[in-house]
Structures are given as C-alpha cells and as structure tokens.
Amino acid sequence: MFKQIQKDLKTLDVNLKQMVGPRHPILSAATEHLFHSRGKRIRPAIILLVAKAANNQRELTNEHRRLAEITEIIHTASLLHDDVIDDCNTRRGSGTVNSKFNNKIAILAGDFLFAQSSWYLANLNNLDVVKIISKVITDFAEGEVAQSLTTFDVSMSIDNYMHKSFHKTASLLASSCKASAILSNANEIQQNQFYNYGKHLGLAFQIIDDILDITGDHKNMGKPAGLDLKNGNLTAPLLFALNECSELHKLIEREFEEDGDIEYAITLIKSTNGIEQAKDLAKEHAQASIQNIKYALDNPAISDLKLLSEYIINRIT
User: Fold this and answer.
1) Could you give phi then psi for residue 298, rounded to 5 degrees?
2) What pLDDT is attached to residue 22?
3) How far apart are alpha carbons 84 and 65 in whole angstroms?
4) Mean pLDDT of the chain
5) Per-residue pLDDT tens digits for 229-270
6) CA-based, 20 to 30 A from 64: which of 71, 82, 131, 173?
7) 289, 170 in Cβ contact below 8 A?
8) Which NCBIfam families does the UniProt record give (predicted)?
C-alpha cells in the first residue's frame, strides 16, 4: 500500500532523528518509540498519501513531509504520557520510558516532544494548519480527563466511549489529514472529506486496539492483555458484553480487586457477543472512511487509502 511513498518514509526516519536529536540519554530513550518499534509509520504514511491524493499525484512538498513528521512526534509524545497514566511497562516488546527511568522522566520527555512538534508546526507558516493541529493537543487532554472521570463506571454509554475515543485517538489522524489537504490547496469540500476519512479510520483503529486488549493478541498490541480492564477503562467489547452478562457488573464494581478477576472478566466477555459487536462497529467506521473519499479524484493515492480501510475490515473479519 505504501510503495509509492516508500522513499518519503525513509526520509522521514532520518529527519525524525535530526528533529529530536540525542541531546540527552533520556530523550534518546524516548525516541525508541519512534525508531525501534514496528508499526509506527501508519499515521505519517496516511498523511503523505492524502497529500498525493489531494494534489492529484504531484510531487510532495517539504511542508507535506514535515507535517507527517510532526504528526508522528505528537503521536509518540501522547504514548509516553499514556504509558504513565496506564502504568504500562512494555510497548511493542520493549520497556517503556517510565519503566526504564521513572514517571517524571517519561512525562518530561513527552512534554519535550510536544514542544518540538509545536516549534516545527509554527515553522510551516500556515496559520490554518497551525490552528487545526494545535487543537489536537487540547483534544488529547480532554480525552484523558473524560476517561479518568468514567473509570469503572458501568453506566458509561457507547456514545461516551466514542466521544472519548475521538479525542484520544481519531482527532490527530482527522486533523492531520485535513491539514495535509490544506497544504495541497484542496478546496473546503475536499478538506472535509479527508478529515472525515481520518476521523473514521482513527475510530476504527481505536476499537480494534480495544478488541485486542480483550483477545490478548500481545504481538499485535505490544502491551499486556487486559490492561484497559485493570485500569477501569471500559471499552466497546466490554460495554456491549455488559448488556448480556450481569456477572461483569459485579467484577467492575469491585474494580477487579480479587485475584483472577481480570482473567475471569475476559472469559465472560468472550462468552458474549461483545467482541463481535465491537468488530461490527470497527467495520462500520472503516467503511465510513471509504465512503468519505468515494467521490474524490480517482488516483493511485486514493486507491491506497481505500485499500488501507479495506485491510482493516479484513483484519477483523
């Protein structure tokens, strides 16, 4: 899917190292997420494909490439903070910054990356792009607050879950897709099409991650199964399962405090239709992402963006 931008992705790797830089061993450790983890190029790849799609396959500009780099740095900064909040010790098979050092260092490293992204964002000299990407960092904070206020809350609705998921995950992809279209001088209709493409694809990504937290696919997830449950984060599979299994209510209300509660909860969820319903929800959003670029100019980049959405649908079939 990324063959046409492979060269640009290799350049992105080089540029990221220069942007972050080995200023301090601890900051270098923070960049492990960027440089030594598999599967960390999906967001910049999407941004570059949107750029090609919106400017009808013309050459990418330095601004397009820099936006992709900024998006990856913001994403990585959010992971550093998430690992602290979730008390996560491994990610993609490697120790997290907070486990190698401590929470304070991890938070400072995340703050540093957010600051770096802001600096490079300002240097794009495009006020519209600055506004839309700056809002993402606010969305991250709002999503984290919303999540912290609903831990172990069995009254949480799917709508609340989707709202939180947008702010924590989909906002960055949606806004970066729109920003990429802006840099390609796309009209407002096209900008909104790509925004909605990123929004729905981001939501599909989040739902799939939440499914993997239950199904225990540690290789794909890169962190221990059941971590969301342990932290009281009620996700789509669990919320759907609650409608069928009253025993889950008891486990959540006692906050999984007894030995074996997490494992028992996972077993109960798997015995319901919760996972299948969550898969259907993810497919719905992946299909919605395709619909939003259905009438865009037909070119290889558009085809690759559609193929990516279809890959997600097939991945969870």
Assistant:
1) -80, 115
2) 62
3) 30
4) 88
5) 999 999 999 999 999 999 999 999 999 999 999 999 999 999
6) 82
7) no
8) prenyl_cyano
Nearest CA to 76 among 7, 3, 151, 13?
A: 13
- The CATH number of whichever domain residue 308 belongs to comes to 1.10.600.10
Whole-Å CA distances, 245 to 145, 214, 249, 270, 271: 28, 16, 8, 11, 9
The burial of 176, by beta-carbon neighbours within 10 Å (0-12 exposed, 13-18 middle, 19 or more buried), is given as buried
Query: Range of 94's domain?
Result: 3-315
Domain count, the chain: 1
pTM for the whole structure = 0.91
Q: What is the DSSP letter of 123?
A: T
Contact 72, 12 (CB under 8 A): yes
Number of other CB atoms surrounding residue 159 within 10 Å: 8
Give tens-digit pLDDT for 101-151.
Answer: 788 888 888 888 898 899 999 999 999 999 999 999 889 889 888 888 899
How far is the C-alpha of 85 from the C-alpha of 26, rounded, in Å?
Answer: 19
